[in-house]
Amino acid sequence: MSRPVASLVALFVLAATALAQLPPAGQPPASQPSPQEAPASQPTPPSFLDLRRSLDDQATTDLDRRRAIVQLRSLADDRVRPYLLELFGRESMAAYRAAIVAVLADLEPDDELRRLVRESLVSADFALRSAAARALVKVDPDWKRVFRRLLDDEGERSLHGNLVFAIAYSDDEGALDFLREILERHPEQLGALTISYASSRFGIEAVYKDFLQPQLRKQADENLRYAALAVLGQAKDRRFLSGLGRHLSRQERQQTATRWLPLLAGLDDPDAFQVMLEMVDKATPFVERSFLDQAARMQHPKIRAWFRDRGARMPEPCIRRAALANMRAFPEARNVPVLKKLCESDEAETVAAALSALARHARELAEPVIRKCYQQGGVQKAADALDACAELCGDDPTLLADLLQIAGQSRAWELRVVAMRLLQDHHAAEAREILLANAEHARGAVRIGAYDALTYLRDREVVDFLIGRLDHEDGRPLGELVAALTNLTGSQWGRRVERWQAWWRKVRADYPLPPRPERTVVVRDDDGQRYGFYGIDVDSTRVVFVIDTSGSMSARSNTGTTDRIYQAKNELKSALSRFGEKHAFDIIAFNGAPRAYAGRLVKASPVELDKARAWVDALQAAGGTNIYDSLDLALATDDVDTVFLLSDGAPGNGKYVDTDLILEAIRRQNRFRRIRINAIGIGVAGEARRLVETLAKENWGVSVIL
Asked: pLDDT tens digits for 404-416?
């Protein structure tokens, strides 16, 4: 069996094992009410007539209908059986029919019930067939013969897993022998499931000799070996660790690392940790992310000591990140000298992680280190230290005084932006005059930050001030100013100052300012001059378009009339056609690597636009998807204030491919300049969709999913 298929099977084993720990269908998990929550009096259980009326009432909800069917099981009433048989005959929904079969299986069996269950076994509905498989064990003495026939039938493969489950969780004394027979007769198709269900139902020791140990031999089938190891790992059995070392080569362990890393971490054992370190050597980004997630939570004292004494100084970035994450998760005084030393690193990411870890330690130990970093460090370190100090010290008066001074007097405009962000939630009133002054700062990013922070002051005088600023802004800052006014007032009057002035003069005296919304409103104007890219306003004069040209962009578009790359090129050329001399732009096309049209913002002259359209026309769909490096290149463009990202897939190339690492890196790169990132996802789902939506949300933009 090929390695990709083997991986899918083994992953299915993990899911199936979790499923096997659930009680059979129709049996709710047992629960014990706490003494404090014991009801004063038990409610009267519903009668047969109550339940029948509920089931016959077409207005009864799905949940109440299923609950009523299950409640019939507990009634000692001769009317239950004939009613359920009659209800089964007239009920059209397979989910209800499956619930009825599960209840009938607990009643006294007879020929009619056996016939109904056997007929349900050949139903087209999977849920009903699954319920019938479990019911047959209870009602038909000849169930094993029926099961053997179904297990031998290749056309019934969709039912096989439920049959094995029904066998494992039956009360039959020969269930384990039957499972052993299935493992011998159907090792390739059902071996992994059989091992999983047998282990979860009967326990590791009961099945080890016959089900697990034989699969740990080198000559055993690869899938069965993986299944046996997975069962041992989930049980936190140390034989998993020895089996992994003896029966999988170093290359195999590295190739299947994402499968084993969570199980090794679950042992929380120094020997298991050494195997994890071996797996992360020359690993893929996905393995590195799995290692980071798992190792950061390991609590064994020796592992934590290794991270502190060695891991934080390792050359591999992945191990250093894991060490710093572990020290953040488990703060102790011995970490502080190590973290203090790391704050002197030349690597910005290491410094940021060290400061973040310090923020979780005792204040008397960490605060002096963090304050020194924002008082004496460069811009990046000072910004990270301010964030860490805010987390550590909260509303400390000394920190508040420092933030007010930085926001109002710092020569580094970047630190003004950071300080205003930290002040706005709870200290906008104290910073009022500073925010008003920064709203007239020469740097656009500072003005944008001030406009956002001023919305935390629900104040008519702030509205006066912002309306007065409308004649002084253009492009992206103007859009943010209008968004701030809309945020404050709940009204949308576009970008023309006379509209705002006329309306505000009329209502100012007694106009109630609404509560602040969670997010800044993106405002569309109605002056006929707006234009967009995939429906998102292009309200900036300094724009970079980042366009996916990977192989998947050759697929059909959402309209079904053209391919995605053709639609993207048309959208881009349409947006460019509205640019004038005041606009500057660049285009970055990416597949496995980014490539720029100009490598800088260029003026949108007629000649330049013609050249850009020809460049766009020549784009072809081929290769992988490198989102991070492409965004990194766009954000590094001088004077850009708006980025449009278009992609139709999950990242598979670049410095970072993990969603969280990409988001974290972009968040850090963009916290000063506050470049708006609008993101369009075509056919994206799961992590790819989360990346598109979160990039826009965290970077003052809009997301569109097509």
From this structure: 999 999 999 999 9
Enumerate residues 6+ apart whose C-beta is below 8 A from 97: 88, 91, 120, 125, 128, 131
At residue 15, φ and ψ (nearest 5 deg) are -65, -40
Q: Are strands 642-647 and 584-590 parallel, antiparallel or unpaired?
A: unpaired
Q: Left, alpha or beta for 534 (phi > 0: left; psi -120 to 50: alpha)? A: left
CA distances in angstroms from 164 to 192, 205, 359, 700, listed in the order given? 11, 20, 52, 52
| Residue 685, C-beta contacts closer than 8 angstroms, at least 6 positions apart | none
**For the CA atoms of the chain, what is the radius of gyration?**
32
d(Cα 189, Cα 177) in Å, to the nearest integer?
18
Q: Is the dihedral of CA 343, 348, 349, 352 positive or negative?
A: positive
pTM of the model: 0.74
User: For residue 470, which amino acid is it?
Assistant: L
d(CA 462, CA 610): 44
Whether 537 and 552 have beta carbons less than 8 Å apart is answered as no
Backbone angles phi, psi at 407, to 5 degrees: -60, -30
Q: CB under 8 Å, gap of 24 or more: what pairs does 440-447 form?
A: 440/469, 440/472, 441/413, 441/416, 443/413, 444/476, 444/477, 444/641, 445/413, 445/417, 445/641, 445/672, 445/673, 445/674, 446/413, 446/416, 446/417, 447/473, 447/477, 447/480, 447/481
First and final C-alpha spacing in the chain: 37
pLDDT per position as a tens digit, 667-685: 988 988 889 999 999 988 8
Beta strands in 451-541 (DSSP E): 532-533, 536-537
Comparing C-alpha atoms, which of 349, 348, 309 is closest to residue 327? 309
Q: What is the C-alpha separation between 218 and 403, in angstroms, rounded? A: 64
Helices 317-329 and 301-309: crossing angle, nearest 10°? 130
CA 210 to chain centre: 40
Query: Residues 338, 327: contact at Cβ < 8 Å?
Result: yes
